[in-house]
Amino acid sequence: MPAVDQRRPCGPRHIVSTQLGAWLAGLICLLGSAGLSARGQDMLPDRPAAAEQEAPALSTEFDQLDPWQRYNRNMYRFNRGLDKMIFRPVARGYQRVTPSLLRRGVSNFFGNLQQPVVMLNKLLQGKPKLAAAALGRFTMNATLGIGGIFDPATEARIPNERADFGQTFARWGWQRSRYFVLPVFGPSTLRDGAGKLVNRQVSPVDWLARRHGAEVSVLYGIDARAGALSAEAFLEDAEDEYLLVRDSYLQYRRCQLIDCSDQLPDYLLPDYEIEIPDLNMESFRQ
Length: 286
Known about the structure:
By secondary structure, the protein is mainly α. Helices cover 55% and strands 5% of the residues. It is built from 13 helices and 4 strands. The strands form 2 sheets. Strands 1-2 form a two-stranded antiparallel ribbon. A hairpin with a 2-residue loop joins β1 (17-19) and β2. α2 crosses α10. The longest helix has 29 residues, at 69-97. The chain is globular and about 50 Å long. The model is unreliable at 1-51 and 261-286 (pLDDT under 50). Pfam families: MlaA (PF04333). Belongs to the MlaA family.
């Protein structure tokens, strides 16, 4: 696979969900982890022929979790229309006029603010070592990284895990949940929607927005949407765009709960590899 910026987080956040009003359309970036940090240039791998054969079986499996498909399709079309009229043009303008170094700093800043949420969820999931890693990332980036603008934690090879309350609820037993497209916020499930409500109560980003105004949320959303621009081409060839987004979202969320990377088609796997020779990741996951 071709190498790209190793610090770029590719996850459902960049594909099938929105953050604070930015519809994150675009698909191939759902790979890897689901959090925030610096963004680089995505490289779009070709979708292999084998994936075309796997898609019908995948859709059939997830059809059972989508009993409200009529509503979901209508809401998906509404969200996409809103994106084309508002969010995508704004994100393109932001990308054109803002230097890449400044954009990376903004992404790093918001990414680091997510680490306390990751730490809390890893503790609730019974993974204290990963919680400690999240705390270590936050502390190092907040100090040596000048408030999180730079990302020395990645250079120090500290694991950059992702976690949210939807994932935590699943680990507590709420594993199967109906698919539900949220207005503006996009693809979700009932479980993940409930998790978003809790996330907003504890997220430092939302705390800053409440304290300093909507400008924080606006910048966060624009930054998130701009990070998905280069991934949009993957949707253009989709026979059924709704099903592609739905199945990708549900498959990725399921694979956040179990190690099922060997079950994913190649086009849902990361198009980059990170070598960490002296770090036993399994010891962190225990």
